[in-house]
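Long-time lurker. I teach an intro course on protein structure, and each term I like to show students one example going from raw sequence to a predicted 3D structure in token notation. This year I'd like something fresh instead of my usual example. Would anyone be willing to generate the tokens for the chain below so I can use it in lecture? Attribution to the forum is fine with me.
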Amino acid sequence: MGEAGYSVLPSFTSRDAFQIFISRDINLVILCHTIPQEEKSKLIVSMKERKRAPIVCIHVDGEADGKLVDAYLHSLDGPEVLLSCVAKVLDKSIGRQIAN
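-- Reply from a regular --
Happy to contribute to a lecture. Here you go:
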């Protein structure tokens, strides 16, 4: 993501991710497939309660639930698919902000 020109704020725990999310101006969140599903769901709900930043989730087979986030990607999709998805989600988010 950094090589593609995006600023990246990495986190290694859900708690750190949430602290970064509430303390910084975040345009997009990408959650890794390594976060346990229940923990990830709680984190997503907490984030959505605070801000309208779009969330992209990386998942493995059988755990995608598109009702909570703006986009899901499979962990094997690769960097090109991730970059394309991020661009689309950000474009959609900017469109919503302009409409409001």
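Some talking points for your students: DSSP finds three helices and three strands in the chain. The mean pLDDT is 86.
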